[in-house]
Design brief:
Blueprint lengths: L7 H8 L14 H4 L11 E2 L4 H12 L7 H4 L7 E3 L9 H9 L2 E3 L7 H10 L1 H11 L7 E2 L3
Parallel strand pairs: 2-3
Antiparallel strand pairs: 1-4
Helix pairs in contact: 1-6
Length: 147
């Protein structure tokens, strides 16, 4: 993989290969993890954009405080200016890293065009169904949480 040529779109094309979604647990659809079969039940479902509410709920339910360390680990985007000026699906990873170093990153919506959005929706169709049922609003706005 050459970071000067590898793109977000290329990453999702790799994920469409047989068994690729199971290579890394971050990519595996939530429904494949079968958490309820392992004794966990979903009591709350949160979207990635509402992690603050998720952290507060986990603390409320378990008494265990959650510390958001995304800004310390480089996973946070709060300090970055989100770009919405074009589609960045075909921008090489190395260029995205340079942009991040200058304080910019594509907004989530700017990482997809309609073709890539359809591919992602197909790859994660089962999760989208779970999220839609769980959200009660029919939107793609939730992520599995457990108690």
């Amino acid at each position: 993989m050459d970071p000067e040529r590898f793109t977000f779109r290329a990453f999702f094309l790799l994920l469409s290969a047989p068994s690729a979604l199971d290579i890394d647990h971050h990519w595996t659809p939530q429904v494949r993890m079968r958490l309820e079969a392992r004794g966990y039940r979903y009591s709350d479902i949160f979207g990635m954009h509402t992690l603050g509410a998720a952290f507060a709920r986990i603390t409320e339910v378990t008494g265990m405080p959650i510390h958001d360390t995304r800004n310390l680990s480089g996973h946070g985007a709060d300090s970055l200016k989100m770009l919405i000026d074009s589609c960045y699906a075909d921008t090489p990873l190395a260029e995205l890293a340079r942009m991040r170093g200058r304080g910019y990153a594509p907004a989530n919506a700017a990482r997809y065009d309609s073709a890539l959005m359809q591919e992602v929706a197909h790859l994660y169709e089962e999760d989208l169904g779970l999220y839609q049922i769980s959200s009660g609003r029919g939107g793609i706005n939730v992520l599995g949480g457990m108690q």
